Amino acid sequence: MSKKSASNIGNQSKAKLGEQIRNIADRLKQENEVQIKATSRILGAAAQISENHDRLVNEVVDMVEEDLNKQTQTYQKDIYTVDILKQQFKTLREAKNYFKLKATSWESLVKKINDSSSQKLVSETKPQFYHFFESNSMGKFEHDGKISEGFTVHLEEDVAEIFPNAQAVNEALRFLIRVTKKSC
Prior knowledge:
The structure is a single chain. By secondary structure, the chain is mainly α. Helix content is 73%, strand content 9%. Strands 1-2-3 form a 3-stranded antiparallel sheet, with no helix packed on it. It starts with a helix and ends with a helix.
């Protein structure tokens, strides 16, 4: 073999090696671009999730405040004064008949009404236990010894501790419905 052919072979080897290195460098560059694009998409998605999370939290806070305001207004409606009763009723007798209470004065009637309202509020928040008699999807249920017909759901003990009555369960479910509707 001559020196010329040996150097040609050496040059060709160097050219192939150089081409291989360029190919590897190009592939690395392409992979870096793909990784940069993927990272950019991930960061964009994370920002969107954060924005949606903040919006959802704000909506939930607004709904809870709205519910609390409604509840406060409801409780405020149950508080009576002598002036309020005198505006609503012409006579003490008319007011006593309306509320089905015995009282000797406007003041005593107000006291009895407000006391009965607070007792009613306490009894509504006490846990209530239901016995369910199945009959397909409809059934009869017993509550405080009275049997009624309708649809009921059995609450497990841990759930019943948090939701003491039907009103609490219904309010929680309505709240959940509103949250899911607004987030869709």
